[in-house]
Every structure is written in C-alpha cells, then in structure tokens.
C-alpha cells in the first residue's frame, strides 16, 4: 500500500470518527441523500491535507460524550454543522 493510499484511509477513518463524535452516521446520511458521496469524498481530501492528524486522533480518543464543536484544527467543522442542522450537503 502506498503512503498516499494509507493517508487517505487514515483520513477517511478520522472523518467517520469525527462524524460519529458529532452524533452523525455519515453512511446513513449518504444513503438517505442528505450527504452527497462527492461531498464526503471532499471531506476526506480536506482531512488528508491536515497538518495534525495525530492531534485530531488524540482529541477524538479523549471525548466521552458527543460534541457540537470539534477541535479548532478540524477543516470539516462547517460540514458537520450543516449536517447536524439537518441540512443537505
């Protein structure tokens, strides 16, 4: 597996975990049409460009309850905000 493939797999996992931490089931949102697959892909690309994925993972590991605000470095917070408001993305 290439380093690029590994990075995108890690980013996809972080996006999924961050969505879950925001009490969002991204798979269900895609299936219902509220979240476009392209938009989810864009979120993974944004995450893959982050300079602190380890910090994000550590932040996620430290959360015990669902959140309404992710870490300040999260490039996908606006997307999570939209989805939590019930809006389509």
* Net shape: globular
The span between the termini is 31 Å
- Summed up, the helix count is 5
Q: Roughly how much helix do the residues carry, as a percent range?
A: 55-70%
The amount of beta strand, in percent, is under 5%
- String of helices and strands: HHHHH
Count every beta strand, where a strand is a DSSP E run of 2 or more residues. Answer: 0
Q: Using only CA atoms, what is the Rg?
A: 12 Å
Look at the helices and sheets and give the structural class: mainly alpha
Low-confidence residue ranges: none
Largest sheet: none
Average pLDDT taken over every residue: 95
How would you characterize the overall build of this protein?
The model has no long low-confidence stretch (mean pLDDT 95). This protein is 63% helix and 0% strand. The protein contains five helices and no strands. It has helices at 3-21, 26-32, 37-48, 53-62, 77-84. It is mainly alpha-helical and 89 residues long.
Summarize the structure.
This protein has 89 residues and is mostly helical.
Summarize this structure as a short list of keywords or feature phrases:
89 residues, 5 helices, mainly alpha
Q: What's the SSE blueprint?
A:
Layout (H helix, E strand, L loop, with lengths): L2 H19 L4 H7 L4 H12 L4 H10 L14 H8 L5
Helix pairs in contact: 1-3, 1-4
């Amino acid at each position: 597996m290439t380093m690029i493939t590994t990075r995108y797999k890690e980013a996809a996992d972080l996006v999924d975990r961050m969505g879950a931490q925001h009490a969002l089931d991204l798979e269900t949102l895609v299936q219902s049409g509220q979240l476009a697959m392209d938009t989810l892909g864009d979120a993974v690309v944004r995450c893959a460009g982050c300079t602190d994925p380890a910090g994000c993972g550590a932040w996620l590991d430290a959360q015990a309850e669902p959140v309404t605000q992710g870490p300040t470095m999260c490039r996908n917070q606006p997307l999570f905000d939209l989805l939590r408001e019930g809006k389509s993305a």
